[in-house]
Structures are given as C-alpha cells and as structure tokens.
User: Which sequence fits this backbone?
C-alpha cells in the first residue's frame, strides 16, 4: 500500500466543487509534480494534503508510516515576511516546533537537527543574518531548511521558484533533486514551470478542476494532454 | 509658568537634583503603586506588541482600547469595579475582532473601525446620562496617574505576571505563528488558539494600562517599542528583549518628566509624556538604524 492515497477525492468551497475525481497515489521516494493552470485546484489540493481542508467527497488514506502533520511544507511567502526581523537560524529552528508538542522550549536534539539542515543546504554563513536582508533564493533555502527540520518522510513545495531568477531557479531544482535522491524523501511540488517539472519529476499530476493526467513523467510527455500543455509553454524538451 | 521644579533639575541645591526628585516622587505611595503597575504593563505591552505589529494587528490594540473606554464608562455608571467589568468584555471583543478579521465579508481594518467607534459612542452616551462630561471622563480618555487604588494594584500585578509567564512559555510558538501561520498550521500547531491567546493577553494588558495611559493613548505602549527596536535589531529574540527594555525605560522617564515638569500649576499628563518619550526613542533608534545601514553599504 502506498504511503499516501487519494481515492475519488473532491474539494468544495461552500458547495461549489473546485476540484474533483482525484485518484492517485504517492509512494515513498517519489517526486511528484502537480501542474495545471491558475484556478485548476492546485492550492486546494495542497490544503487537503496538509489536512487544512477536509475532502468534500472521497478519502485521503495514509498507510500509517506517514503522519500528515509530518510533511515538511514550503509555503509561498507572505507579504508580512518580507520585513520580518528574525535570524535565519531562528526561522530554521522553528521547523522543529511540531516535535515539541506542549513542551515550551527546544531541546539540544532540535538544535542539532537545525544545524544539520543548515549545513546540508549550504547556508551556514547565513545563519546569523537577518531573514529580511537575504535574497529571494537565500530565503527559499532557509525556508527549505525549516521544512526539512519538520519531516523525515515528505516535502510539499508550493511554487517554490516563483519570483526567482533563472540561474537561482535551476540551482533550487538541482537542490531538490539532490535531496530526493540522497535522502529518499518524497517530494510533492506544485509548479507552473512545466518544462522543469518534466525534467526533474518522476510523476506528473495534471489538474484542470479534475484529474486530467496522473502517471509517470515519460508517459505524460507522450500523452496528448502532456504534448498540448508542453506545446503551449513554447520550447521543446531536450 | 512655574519653574520651581525645573530649577531643581537645572541648578539644584543640596542633594543631586534628579535623585532628590526621585526621592520626593517615591515618598508618595500612590505614585509608587502607579509606577510599579505602569512598568509591568509596559513590559507586557512591549512583548505582545512585537507579535501584533508583525502580524499587522496593530489596530486591534487601538480598537480594544476604545472598547475599554466604553466598558469603563458602563462600569462607572453601574458603580462596579472597573477592571472586573472591563477585562471580560474587552477579552470578548478581542475574540470577536479576530473572528471577524479572519473570515467575514467585512475586512479586518473596517471591522476594527466599526467596533471601536461603536463602543466609543456607547461610552459617551452612558457618560452623558450619568456624570456628564467632567474631569473623570477626561481622565479615562487621556489617563491619570491617580487612577489606581490598592485592589487594582494587586489585580494588575497578578495579571501582568500571568501575561509574562504565558508569553515566556509560548515564546517559540508565538514566533512560529507570527512568522508563518500557514507553516505552523501545517505542522499541527493550533494557530487559532495562539491567535486567541495573543489577542486576549493584549486585551488584559490594555485594560490594565488604560486608566493610567488613557484609552486614546494606551495602544502606543504596544506599537512604539516594537517599531523602535525593529529599526536596529535583526533577530526576533533581540527585538523582543530590546522592545521590553525600551518600553520600561521610556515609561519610567515619561513618568518622572510628567512629575517634574510643572506648567501653569499643572503637572504634565502621564500618558502623553510617556508617548512623547517613546516618540523620541523611535526617532533616535530610527537615526541609528539609518546610519548603521549607510555604513554597511
């Protein structure tokens, strides 16, 4: 049984169905990219995965090896964070919060895990810097380190490269790929960047208020949906 | 303008002037009471203020102080203990404001304006039916150092200690909820609960400080220290410590100035003096931050 299974799931806001017919499963170590146009239900799917929104119909099953509270989440940045006075280290350490329960303070182990993830992402030199003074790419790395602190199983990334320049974007994709390969973390990424999605992901889920395609990336590239969507993006795939 | 007290500062004879003023001040027990409560309230306000300002909730503090004014007027009309009536109602208003700003069709800032002007209006009506517009009303609005009696002091100290303890115990969670509510919620933190915690602690702090600082001015204790320390500090922890220190120091200086300066046989109003000192601190820290930024680049 796969760690995360969606069975006939649909989500609705005030009775209006936003996305329906979700039938897919994510296995340990998969790299799933969720693609689709604006308003196709991607953000709603994320809320569902994080248990912030209950399905209208159907069910989301887990096999017990993964607790949905233990998904490392990299949300889109909010306006309030842009001028937030906090050091990178403070932000990363806050990823350990879920391990605390009702205990008020972080343990030595929590701090060690934060340090480990800081050095894994190569941001040791930023740890004392102020978050608001970092570049967009550096901020994303800090938030990724925080997400890694929160999980041993799966990362959920919501448009992680939005607003980053092309060079930093490619570096970020390589970093995610490396994490996926080396640690076996399951990656679920919502992305607009279809070309990078087919280059890096192992599976594609294409939404258009319903599930248009789910399967391996190479099958997606050969499918009609995939060819159309990739064609719309312009450039060919190498 | 009477200059006797200024004279003490400027040319003082006998004991060093500042010390003699402090000695004189603290020989009055009511002043000692007021300063103790004021320092505790400024400390609580500054700590909560960091989170409120960063969450863009500054106006909630202001709205709650207006609600406080309304409840104070009603409490006086009913001859009830003001803190006992005000605290539960203002905490309730804090819940309501959070609810409304989170999920209603009237957006946050508009909802706050609605609630704060409504309670101000209710307060003014109640007052006009009972005492009429007199000095007491002026004291509600702009604060009076004489407002605290012994029971108030006991309650204020106890509640301030509760606010401080809860803040320390939940410091890490408050940081997480302030920095990134979505992430915190995704990792299983009950963010709604912490928002309510922050709002109700704020409500308690506002009611405690309101009669001394004045309903119109109390929210400055929440907003100024946080903004002041953010000019210079770069870490959440240092911002928190710095605004606590700034707030306490500014309050103390403000009270001393309000006692020492006498114009037309009136001392300066305490609340306004404290705010003026806070403005000065804000400008100084702003300049320091600006210069620091220039040096770096």
Assistant:
């Amino acid at each position: 049984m796969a760690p995360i299974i969606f069975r006939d799931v649909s989500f609705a806001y005030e009775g209006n169905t936003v996305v329906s017919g979700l039938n897919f499963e994510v296995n340990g170590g998969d790299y799933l990219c969720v693609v689709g146009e604006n308003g196709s239900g991607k953000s709603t799917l994320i809320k569902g995965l994080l248990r912030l929104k209950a399905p209208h119909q159907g069910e989301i099953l887990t096999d017990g090896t993964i607790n949905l509270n233990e998904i490392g989440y990299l949300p889109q940045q909010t306006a309030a964070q842009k001028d937030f006075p906090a050091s990178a280290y403070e932000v990363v350490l806050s990823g350990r919060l879920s391990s605390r329960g009702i205990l008020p303070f972080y343990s030595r182990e929590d701090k060690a895990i934060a340090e480990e993830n800081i050095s894994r992402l190569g941001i040791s030199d930023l740890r004392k810097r102020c978050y608001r003074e970092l570049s967009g790419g550096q901020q994303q790395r800090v938030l990724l380190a925080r997400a890694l602190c929160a999980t041993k199983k799966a990362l959920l990334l919501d448009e992680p490269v939005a607003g980053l320049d092309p060079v930093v974007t490619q570096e970020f994709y390589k970093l995610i790929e490396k994490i996926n390969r080396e640690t076996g973390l399951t990656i679920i990424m919502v992305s607009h960047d279809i070309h990078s999605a087919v280059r890096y992901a192992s599976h594609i889920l294409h939404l258009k208020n319903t599930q248009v395609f789910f399967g391996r990336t190479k099958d997606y590239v050969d499918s009609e949906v995939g060819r159309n969507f990739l064609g719309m993006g312009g450039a060919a795939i190498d | 303008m009477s200059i006797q007290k200024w004279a003490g500062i400027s040319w003082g004879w006998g004991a060093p002037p500042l010390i003699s003023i402090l000695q004189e001040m603290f020989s009055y027990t009511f002043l000692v009471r007021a300063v103790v409560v004021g320092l505790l309230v400024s400390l609580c306000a500054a700590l909560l203020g960091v989170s409120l300002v960063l969450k863009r909730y500054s106006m909630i503090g202001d709205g709650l102080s207006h609600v406080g004014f309304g409840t104070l007027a009603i409490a006086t009309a009913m001859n009830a203990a003001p803190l006992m009536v005000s605290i539960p109602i203002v905490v309730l208003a804090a819940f309501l404001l959070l609810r409304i700003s989170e999920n209603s069709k009237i957006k946050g800032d508009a909802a706050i304006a609605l609630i704060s002007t409504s309670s101000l209006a209710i307060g003014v009506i109640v007052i006009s039916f009972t005492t009429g517009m007199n000095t007491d009303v002026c004291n509600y609005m702009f604060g009076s150092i004489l407002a605290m009696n012994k029971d108030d002091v006991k309650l204020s100290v106890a509640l301030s200690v509760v606010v401080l303890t809860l803040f320390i115990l939940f410091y890490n969670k408050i940081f997480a909820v302030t920095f990134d509510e979505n992430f915190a919620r995704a990792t299983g933190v009950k963010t709604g609960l912490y928002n309510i915690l922050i709002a109700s602690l704020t409500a308690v702090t506002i009611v405690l400080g309101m009669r001394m600082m004045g309903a119109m001015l109390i929210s400055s204790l929440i907003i100024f220290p946080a903004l002041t320390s953010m000019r210079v500090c770069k870490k959440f922890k240092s911002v928190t410590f710095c605004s606590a220190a700034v707030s306490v120091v500014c309050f103390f200086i403000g009270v001393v100035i309000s006692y020492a300066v006498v114009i037309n046989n009136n001392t300066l109003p305490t609340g306004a003096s404290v705010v003026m000192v806070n403005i000065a601190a804000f400008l100084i820290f702003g300049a320091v931050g600006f210069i620091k930024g220039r040096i770096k680049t």
